[in-house]
Design brief:
Elements (H helix, E strand, L loop, with lengths): L1 E6 L2 E9 L11 E10 L1 H8 L17 E2 L2 E11 L9 E7 L3 E4 L1 E5 L2 E4 L13 E4 L11 H23 L7 E4 L5 H10 L6 E6 L4 H7 L4 E4 L12 E5 L4 H11 L3 E6 L20 E2 L2 H12 L1 H19 L8 E6 H13 L7 E6 L3
Parallel strand pairs: 11-12, 11-14, 12-13, 14-15, 15-16, 17-18
Antiparallel strand pairs: 1-2, 1-4, 3-5, 3-7, 3-18, 5-6, 6-10, 8-9, 9-10
Length: about 375
């Protein structure tokens, strides 16, 4: 077994570790081999919030100061001691960056299973679910790279758009997005496109302005430096994907009474979570997708939630992968060394919004 360990206090530093493990699976256990996974700033966010949100606890290392960064990807069963799960089956889910991982499946159904390993029982169940690709209505083999890149992000986008709409946008008629070039941000805007009476305004860096304007998701695009030129007569909801505290303060002070809600959707930069700050207007509120998923499971039932999500995801991926739209260039890389280098570049902010990074461990 080979695994990649990352320093919790320096996310651009990782190291490889190898150990001998039994090749089989005990009763009640499955052994999976990770084939491929995506790397985005979302993975850096998991690590940045690793302590506050317990992300490091999904795949503990037993080594102080070192963690296994979670990623979304596909793995194949190489040995199974669990009825209903066979060697050779392929699953999509939340994995460590490692050649192999052992799990203790429970709630095994045709759709998949949940990992019931003791250390995961108190953690958010949405991350413990593994989907059998043969039973996934949204799965297509040729779209695996797109699914890994977009599904975890688009799930947040879809549920965030639903949360905001579910709350009547808190009375806002304009949404102001920071880090509008991020995949989760423009996924949210994609879900809300055409919403009657709602304007979508993007904030981005000069470097990314052309990309953001070309997406076609936003009605207006401004550089961060031009924030103070935005009118203050429109009830506005701030959708914060940057976590930049100085920017948040500028938004609050400039918009004043026009700011009706501040929704913090996560960030790779602000590793201090949401710190107390003396800001005018509404206190920033953290959005956590599993909370809205639970609400909609109760409102609509899980099958209907999945149906709506899969339909929206398919529309989004079909749009994003169309070369003429210029949204995505796949960057496919091979092996642990490539993963280590890519994590360092993402942690240091050296990612291009148009690029999607996929790492293959298998042959």
């Amino acid at each position: 077994m080979t695994r990649l360990l990352t320093r919790k206090d320096a996310l651009n530093e990782s190291r490889l570790e190898a150990a001998q493990e039994p090749a089989g699976a005990a009763a009640g256990e499955v052994l999976l081999r990770l084939d491929r996974f995506a790397l985005t700033t979302n993975n850096i966010t998991y690590a940045a919030f690793g302590e506050a949100m317990q992300y490091w606890q999904f795949f503990p290392t037993g080594q102080a100061g070192w963690g296994q960064m979670p990623v979304w990807g596909f793995a194949d069963v190489v040995a199974s001691g669990v009825p209903g799960i066979e060697a050779g089956e392929r699953f999509y889910g939340y994995f460590p960056i490692a050649s192999h991982v052992r799990m203790q499946p429970e709630r095994v159904t045709p759709r998949g299973f949940y990992d019931a390993s003791a250390h995961r029982r108190t953690l958010t169940s949405a991350y413990n679910q593994y989907t059998r690709v043969s039973q996934d209505a949204a799965y297509r083999r040729e779209l695996e790279d797109y699914q890994m890149l977009y599904r975890p992000l688009f799930l947040t986008s879809f549920m965030l758009a639903d949360f905001l709409a579910d709350n009547g946008f808190f009375g806002a008629t304009r949404l102001l997005f920071s880090s509008a070039s991020s995949k989760t941000a423009y996924g949210t805007a994609f879900c809300l496109r055409g919403q009657a009476g709602l304007a979508l305004h993007a904030l981005t860096s000069p470097r990314h302005r052309g990309f953001v304007a070309g997406l076609g998701c936003y009605g207006a695009v401004s550089d961060y430096a031009a924030l103070e030129s935005i009118d203050t007569a429109t009830p506005t909801l701030y959708v914060d994907f940057s976590g930049d505290e100085a920017l948040r303060e500028r938004v609050h002070r400039h918009l004043g009474d026009a700011l009706v809600y501040d929704c913090f959707a996560g960030s790779a930069q602000n590793t201090g979570f949401l710190r107390e700050a003396a800001l005018p207007g509404p206190a920033p509120a953290f959005f956590f997708a599993p909370v809205q998923i639970r609400k909609r499971n109760a409102d609509w039932g899980p099958e209907e939630v999945n149906r709506r999500f899969h339909a929206a995801q398919q529309q989004f991926i079909d749009h994003a992968r169309e070369p003429a739209h210029g949204w995505l260039t796949l960057v496919r890389e091979q092996g642990f060394a490539a993963a280590r280098e890519r994590i360092a570049s993402l942690a240091e902010g050296r990612a291009e919004p148009r690029e999607g990074y996929v790492v293959r461990l298998g042959g």
